[in-house]
Amino acid sequence: MHMKEETAFELTADELDETSSLPLYQQIYTKIREAIISGKVPAQSKLPAEQELVQSLGVSRITVKRAFNELAIAGLVRRYRGRGTVVTYDATAPTVKGSFENLIDGLKRMGIETQVQLLDCEMISPSPAIAEALELSRNASVQRIVRLRILADEPFSYLVTYVPEDIAEAYSEDDLATASLISLLEKAGHRPCEATQTITAVPAEAAVAAVLGVTTGSPLLRIHRIMRDATGRPVQDITATYRADRFQYEMRLTREKNSDWTAE
Questions:
Q1: Any transmembrane segments, and where (predicted)?
Q2: DSSP assignment letter at 15
């Protein structure tokens, strides 16, 4: 892969404030991050060498190294021994927005806008947590599905889903490689009508980081969702892990006089 040897990024000593309560490494990190997120420093560009910044900014090597390490942890750059620090975040790449208010429609749209790669599919005995979430007995079977969603040729989300065996019998593995699970559940006669979800921020584990193409420890958005059909039966337990630079949730809040905020 071709890498640009120069960037438009410049940082001078007068942009740093030694009297600030914000540590110098954090100031350097913030300045570089802003340049990357804005697209001023494009993907595959090389950042200035550590020693170059040490000399131009008049700071210690440890300060610059820590700033670069924070950028790597944030998934914005990748560090190569002997080759320098390369920007991996692409400000021009598309992102997907999710909504709390139109969850099902949003998931269907995501299925259309992204491509899916089936990584694994098998019938297993559920763990106690999965059995409880899907309201199944321990001797029941569930289908465990692992899939990777891709947006504009880039890994986008890593999905681990559990579906009760009798529902999973209504579709094939070939269907899982081409269709959204929402549509497959509808096809099976269990249209999702209700969902409970929890959203957390997590560091990328090594195995997930490798699949999503990010650095181990990079911040990821993890959504755990249990879906129920019109009868109230749990039909899907899914844990979706998203690249933070490719997915965001948004909601609009309104407030009338003397009332609490409500979502629209």
A1: none
A2: G
What are phi and psi for residue 168, nearest 5 degrees? -65, -20
The candidate with the shortest Cα–Cα distance to 35, out of 11, 58, 59, is 11
Pairing of strands 247-250, 96-99: parallel
Band of the pLDDT at 171, cuts 50, 70, 90?
Answer: very high
Task: Decide if 195 is inside a domain.
Answer: yes
Q: Which domain holds residue 221?
A: 96-250
Q: Of 158, 135, 230, which is closest to residue 188 (Cα–Cα)?
A: 230
Helices (H) and strands (E) in the chain, counts: 9, 12
**What is the rounded average pLDDT of the residues 105-127?**
75
Do 73 and 111 have their domain in common? no
The whole model's pTM is what?
0.61
Angstrom distance (rounded) from CA 259 to CA 238: 35
Whole-Å CA distances, 195 to 97, 133, 222, 247 = 18, 12, 15, 19
Contact 130, 162 (CB under 8 A): yes
**Which backbone phi and psi does 52 adopt, to 5 degrees?**
-65, -45
